[in-house]
Amino acid sequence: LAWGEEEWGGEPALGAAEKMGMWSQWNWGEDLVLNANKGPIFYWDRSNESQRAVNIRDLGGADGNAPETADFIVVSHRDRHLLAFGATQFGTSVVAPMSFRWCSQEDITNWDEASMTGTAGSLPLSHGSYFIAAEVRSNEILAWTNTTLYSIQYIGAPYIYSADVISSNVDIAGLNCAKTYNSVTYWMGRSGFYAYGGQ
Predict the structure, then answer these.
(1) What is the chain's alpha carbon radius of gyration, rounded to the nearest angstrom?
(2) H helices within the chain, ranges in order?
(3) pTM assigned to the model
(4) How remote is the C-alpha of 112 from its chain's centroid?
(5) Each residue of 89-102: pLDDT tens digit?
(6) Long-range contact list for 180-186, CB < 8 A, 24+ apart?
(7) Which end of the chain is more exposed for a tag (fewer CB within 10 A), N or C?
(8) What is residue 48's three-state secondary structure?
(9) Which of the four pLDDT bands, split at 50, 70 and 90, describes residue 17?
(10) In the prediction, which pLDDT does 125 show?
(11) Does residue 66 contact residue 43 with C-beta atoms inside 8 Å?
(12) CA dihedral defined by 169, 174, 176, 182, rounded to 10 degrees?
């Protein structure tokens, strides 16, 4: 709001849904991929550092199938996939809050799930209403929904990823509330602190 737009002591005319923007960002080789919560996914090219980050849908060679928006992203460096959680579904503008999508291996411009030559795909999960956070470990990705903690693992073709429930009785406070140290993942929940070492 600009100075003088509202009376002194009055409530600002902001919608209830307004909140601080949360970003997720990951290295893609020497480059950077980044995403504002519920916004598009951007790509910044280190070799052209004077240029701003661009929407991955607008990259040269992009197939037009990348998510329009996502809640957050992670990069699985082990198998070179970019994963988008709570993203728009393949071929539509419909958001799937309990699904995650991934690009084809080592190809951030290929999100064509119907292609037989790539590894792009998506996986809907059923425990919870929406994703809150994810943490990449050496052999899995932990993903928290509002009710459940999942272990997501790369299994290769034809399914690429699988997801198993670790706990249906755990929560996390927000997007940046988990970190892994010495193979143990620690996180802050709404009711306490937690640790997961693979069991």
Answers:
(1) 18
(2) none
(3) 0.87
(4) 18
(5) 999 999 999 999 99
(6) 180/135, 180/136, 180/137, 183/137, 183/138, 185/135, 185/137, 185/142
(7) C
(8) helix
(9) very low
(10) 97
(11) no
(12) -20
Closest CA to 83 of 108, 100, 66, 97: 100
Give residues with Cβ within 8 angstroms of 171, minimum separation 6.
Answer: 144, 146, 147, 189, 190, 191
Label residue 12 exposed, middle or buried (CB < 10 Å: 0-12, 13-18, 19+): exposed
Report residue 37 as tokens: 């919560």
pLDDT, tens digit, for every residue of 107-143?
A: 999 999 999 889 999 999 999 999 999 999 999 999 9
Is the alpha carbon torsion for 120, 171, 20, 179 positive or negative? Answer: negative
Q: In the sheet that 31-36 helps form, which strands lie side by side, from edge to edge?
A: 23-28, 31-36, 41-44, 54-55
Beta carbons within 8 Å of 33's beta carbon, 6+ residues apart: 25, 26, 27, 41, 42, 43, 44, 56, 73, 75, 82, 108
| Spatial distance between the Cα atoms of 110 and 39, rounded to a whole number of angstroms | 19
